[in-house]
């Protein structure tokens, strides 16, 4: 005890001081060069309380942001990516019972007396140095396959659209859980205080499966983490503009007074949603300037419109939304979700899938090329895919030039590009009938765990206590797909 006391009161020389503080001064200098924001991808790093540090990235992320191009309705992998010549050889023959086995079918085709094999009417070729198979429906994406990482062995338990979409967006087939973007907002915070961490864009004028706001909802997380939908047209965000007669100065004074009242209310009640309201009001005020700026695409150069296609000049189209996604990425929005409906092709698939591919192929490829030429693909993860796949047999009558495909959760294809994933690879495989997975199954929770890993988050550690237990996005299983990590 006396020894420690004497040590604490020792008179240090200048040599002692410089020796003992050299590492501290070096760290301080390094901190001036590498900010916590750059190192951890979290602008709230210095402001977090000790109890909140569990929300920091658990390791240095490879991706700072995500652009998720969600193709609602489930694109047919057999007509786009998963080449199965055997289906053409056996066109019209019955799917062997050993292939279907005891697997569950939807009510739309379970009553069929026959299950005739429907080979694809579209031509497939290998592309790029990686030799990826692509159909002629995707000529633009075919040119960038060496940038892409295909997973052809995705699967889910959900067999109908609503639970399947809810599952891939929230980790559960049941409504009420937070969406991926909300989890990332909660865990990682924001890198741009003038825009939401989580933005949603929906292609205008498209019919198909309903898209509910709960797909980008915050669930049981604080409401400030919910996604914010940006719309095309005069009012990108509803009720954002001041009403007639209310100036920016008046609005600022109102918010200041309201904030004081809400702080008093919070001190009295302790409801955290009161603080969320304050945060949302302040964000809305800042967005009055930032949103119109980011939503304006008319000043994009002609070569950008040429890259994304003619549709990109029309606000609200998938192509125009892809340009907006790039602009939001430039502004460091953490999670950008695009929804494009119309892929639910139970009949007339050859006709309808051509239209869908035309609307999305060029713009999807252009977005990846555009991000790359701006140096943004290095820390942006781009995802393309739907909620499940389609069957190898025809739903309803099979014709030589026409067929439909039912839902098929047993296997489907997605692709990714950008930060943290290997280029020009294909993971997983299905059987010759495109019906069952034969190599490296990847569950929805595995996909979600990998997405979070790329953003520096351990999916098992980012949790939220609700109704007596801790929940997570991958509740309660899932493994990072190490094979695709660069």
List the helices and strands and how they pair.
Elements: H1 2-8, H2 14-33, H3 36-40, E1 65-71, H4 77-80, H5 85-89, H6 97-100, E2 124-127, E3 132-135, H7 139-142, E4 148-155, H8 161-170, H9 180-188, E5 198-202, E6 228-229, H10 248-269, H11 272-295, H12 302-308, H13 318-330, E7 335-340, H14 349-373, E8 380-385, E9 389-394, E10 405-408, E11 412-418, E12 425-427, E13 429-430, E14 437-439, E15 442-443, H15 444-454, E16 464-466, E17 469-471
Parallel strand pairs: 1-7, 1-8, 4-12, 4-15, 5-6, 5-7
Antiparallel strand pairs: 2-3, 4-11, 8-11, 9-10, 13-14, 16-17
Helix pairs in contact: 10-11, 13-14
Task: Give a verbal description of the structure.
- The protein is an alpha/beta fold and 486 residues long.
- It has two domains: 36 residues, no CATH class; 396 residues, Alkaline Phosphatase, subunit A (3-Layer(aba) Sandwich), CATH 3.40.720.
- 35% of the residues lie in helices and 15% in strands.
- It has 15 helices and 17 strands.
- Strands 1, 4, 5, 6, 7, 8, 11, 12 and 15 form a nine-stranded mixed β-sheet that branches. A two-stranded antiparallel sheet has the order 2-3.
- Strand 13 and strand 14 form a beta hairpin.
- Helix 10 packs antiparallel against helix 11 and helix 13 runs parallel beside helix 14.
- It is globular, with a radius of gyration of 26 Å.
- The chain starts with a helix and ends in a 15-residue tail after the last strand.
- 44% of the residues are buried.
- The N terminus is likely disordered.
